[in-house]
Write a structure and sequence with these properties.
With about 150 residues, the chain is an alpha/beta fold. It is built from four helices and seven strands; from the N terminus they run E-H-E-H-E-H-E-H-E-E-E.
């Protein structure tokens, strides 16, 4: 159960983060020690903190992940397998890849206590949000030694 801060970011947000890194620009938040949740929440219903916020397929972020890990990212949350290159980077930078329960986005939204925009509003559901969560259920998919819950890699 994870309690604390995480940031949402999907494909397009990752692309912009990498572009900023390559251009030597400042990122919208300090990656060091942070966790990114591969999630694009739905619209926020009236009276709620966030809309449905289930995990998205993590392999789509594999092209970007090693660079973000090198910049200090410590954890990722999503669903599904990761590439051999990403697993090697997870091991090299001693980070961790967590799996969130798929198909439970509405339930997971109830565990988000605060949500605020960090960057890229124009990306809609793919904007980066800072979330404060309480008792967010996760399973370690790949640990800092490269141990992998999946028997096969891509």
């Amino acid at each position: 159960m994870l309690s604390g801060i995480m940031y949402t970011a999907r494909d397009q947000a990752h692309k912009r983060l990498i572009e900023a890194v390559k251009k030597g620009k400042r990122l919208p938040f300090d990656l060091r020690g942070q966790v990114i949740y591969y999630c694009g929440p739905t619209g926020t219903p009236k009276g709620k903190v966030i809309g449905s916020c289930g995990p998205t397929t993590s392999s789509r972020m594999d092209a970007f992940t090693p660079i973000l890990l090198k910049k200090g990212l410590r954890g990722m949350i999503g669903k599904g397998r990761r590439s051999k290159e990403t697993i090697a980077a997870i091991k090299k930078y001693k980070s961790v890849y967590f799996l969130a329960p798929a198909g439970c986005g509405a339930l997971l939204a109830k565990l988000v206590k605060e949500s605020c925009l960090v960057a890229y509003r124009d990306l809609g559901p793919e904007q980066i949000l800072k979330l404060e969560v309480k008792d967010f259920p996760l399973v370690v998919g790949i640990d800092s030694r490269g141990n992998n819950i999946y028997k096969e890699e891509y």
